[in-house]
Amino acid sequence: MDAIDDLSDALETTRNVLTPVSLGFWLKLAVVVFFVSSLGLGGPMLPGGDVGAILEEPTAGEQGGEELEALEEDVPVDEILLALAILLVIGLVLWLVYAFIAAIMEFVFIETLRSSELNLRSYFGANLGNGVRLFLFRIGVLLAMGVLAVGPALLLEVTGTGLEAASGGTFGIYLLYGIAVYLGYSIVQRFTSEFVAPIMLLEDRGVLSAWGRLWPTVTSNVSEYLVYLILVWILSFAISLGVWFLISFGILALMIPFVIGFVLLAFLGEIGFVLMLPLGVLAFVSVLLFVALVWTPITTYFQYYALLVLGDTNDELDLIPDQRNAVRSGNGPQTPRDGTASRGDTQSGDGAWGRDSSGSDEGSLWDDTDDSDPWGEPDDGDGTGDTDDGPSWDDAGGDDDRDRTGTEDESTDRDDDTRGW
Q1: Counting Cβ atoms within 10 Å, is residue 4 exposed (0-12), middle (13-18) or buried (19+)?
Q2: Nearest to 109 by CA among 288, 285, 299
Q3: What mean pLDDT is predicted for residues 331-338?
Q4: Helix, strand or coil for residue 318?
Q5: DSSP one-letter code for 415
Q6: Residue pair 212/304 in contact by the 8 Å Cβ criterion
Q7: 34, 241, 294, 321: which one has the fewest Cβ atoms less than 10 Å from its Cβ?
Q8: What are the contacts of 150-156 at 24+ separation with CB within 8 A?
Q9: Is Nucleotide-binding among this UniProt entry's keywords (predicted)?
Q10: Cis before residue 20, ω within 30 degrees of 0?
């Protein structure tokens, strides 16, 4: 079964793309992973919290009401509520900004794994349109899930029954219903990120069009995708437990110099307390970067696993034919470890993108191979400088479609009707 065999292939493919270790490549990839991965903290939560617990709070009696009135006289309740509302709005705006960037980073991440190169600036700008469509789709799915989750509870309240008056059996059914809604939401979000987004990138489609392209593949390989889901959930849970146990010790060690810095600044008086703010921000960013670095190979592994399953169940949707062939032919990494050639190059012939792959001629996917700028230039992962080749996207035939021989077919343009929703 492909879903089982691809577990080991994904591990080898991940090793090939992440080694030899290049600090610049890893740091940039960690930034991308920070946005596309949950960092082992779990998936999206149901909005609204525990509705049942809120509705089951006991009603305050007469004495409780008097105490509440006295408290309102002593405490500026209106000001506190206003401050909480402002914080809520700020938090919502920050979350929306993060979610928007994360949607674009999904395509940056997939493009990086496909080309084994990372040009953060170019990939980000080239996928703004895809990111907007994915962001809006995710918001729509989240809102739909929220309506489905709280709809029955609101219906009970409107009819005057209420959850507190519902029987144990009714509440149990509602609980099972909520779990089913959450599982459906999780599957849609995972399939969108792992399978639909790659199809959008490969065939230049919108979200709904890419879902329509994926659906026949899923329905004709139901067992493969069911096994994939089960294995991913089990592995994610097990890895999260083990990795976070180790990360906790790493964070403690990382915080030692910052704690010493806080103690020393405390002796400086007012100026010391002012300097604690930037030091605290630096400590927070350092922890996030450390956690993202740890999760970089894990996130890369799971995405490669999904891409391998997608290509095995439908070879027309194979985004990584070179990596797949390298692993299954036993040739190992495509890049010599001594750094004499760049990632994606072989000793002779043309690579999967139709560029000359001999020697150190890389022909960067985005036509930008100077490693002097660590955030704007592609990092091959071998830490060596690369020669500057001509652009590999200057074909006169419009958008290129890969044929199964590993070269590019310039004779056919994509149908623009597949774009959009």
Answers
A1: exposed
A2: 299
A3: 46
A4: coil
A5: P
A6: no
A7: 241
A8: 150/47, 150/48, 150/51, 152/177, 153/51, 153/52, 153/55
A9: no
A10: yes
Element (H or E) spanning 401, and its range? strand 401-402
Element (H, E) at 409: strand 408-409
Q: What is the pLDDT of residues 25-73, one digit of tens each?
A: 999 999 999 999 877 555 433 333 333 333 344 444 444 455 555 555 6
Q: Which residue has the higher pLDDT, 19 or 331?
A: 19
Q: Which of helix, strand or coil describes residue 268?
A: coil
Residue 61: per-residue pLDDT: 45
Taking the C-alpha atoms of residue 295 and residue 38, their distance in angstroms, rounded to an integer, is 9
DSSP 59: P
Summarised one tens digit per residue, pLDDT across range 359-395 is 434 444 344 444 444 444 444 444 444 444 444 444 4
List pLDDT tens digits, range 168-218: 677 788 888 889 999 999 999 999 999 999 999 999 999 999 999 999 999
Q: Among 356, 349, 340, 359, which Cα is nearest to 392's?
A: 356
Q: Is 402 helix (H, G, I), strand (E, B) or coil?
A: strand
Burial 256-278 (b: 16+ CB within 10 A, else e): eebeebbeebeeeeeebeeebee
Taking the CA atoms of residue 347, residue 352, residue 356 and residue 358 in that order, the dihedral angle to the nearest 10 degrees is: -10
pLDDT confidence tier of residue 130, bands split at 50, 70 and 90: very high
Instruction: Give DSSP secondary structure letters for 212-244.
Output: HHHHHHHHHTHHHHHHHHHHHHHHHHHHHHHHH
Cα–Cα distance measured from residue 203 to residue 213, given in angstroms and rounded to the nearest whole number: 10
State the Cα–Cα distance between residues 23 and 415, nearest whole angstrom: 40
Band (pLDDT 50/70/90 cuts) for residue 82 is confident
> Between these two residues, 378 and 10, which has the higher pLDDT value?
10
**DSSP characters over 84-97:** HHHHHHHHHHHHHH
Q: How far apart are CA 135 and CA 128, in angstroms?
A: 10
